Amino acid sequence: MTGHPGAGAGAGRDDADRDRAGRSGRPPGPADGPTAAAATGPAVPAAPVAPAAGERRDGGEGGAGGGGGSGAFVRFPGRAHDERTAALLGVALGVGFAVCFVTGVLSHLAQHPPGWLPWPTRPAGLYRVTQGTHVVTGFGLIPLTLAKLWVAYPRFFQRPAVRSAGHAAQRAALLPLVGGALFLLVSGVLNVARWYPWSFFFPTTHYWAAWVTVGAVAVHVGTTWAVARRVLGRHRRPPALLVPDGPGAAADAGPDRPGGPVEPIAPGERRAFLAAVAGTAALVALGAAGGTVPGTSALSAFAQRRPHQGPQGVPINKTAVGAGVVEAATDAAWRLEVTGAVDRPLSLSLDDLRTMRRHEAELPITCVEGWSTSARWGGVRVADLLAAAGARPGAAVTVESLQEGGRYRASDLDAAQARDRDTLLALELNGSELHIDHGYPVRLIGPNRPGVLQTKWLARLVVR
Ligand code: HEM
Question: Distance between CA atoms of 24 and 28, rounded to whole angstroms?
Answer without folding.
Answer: 9
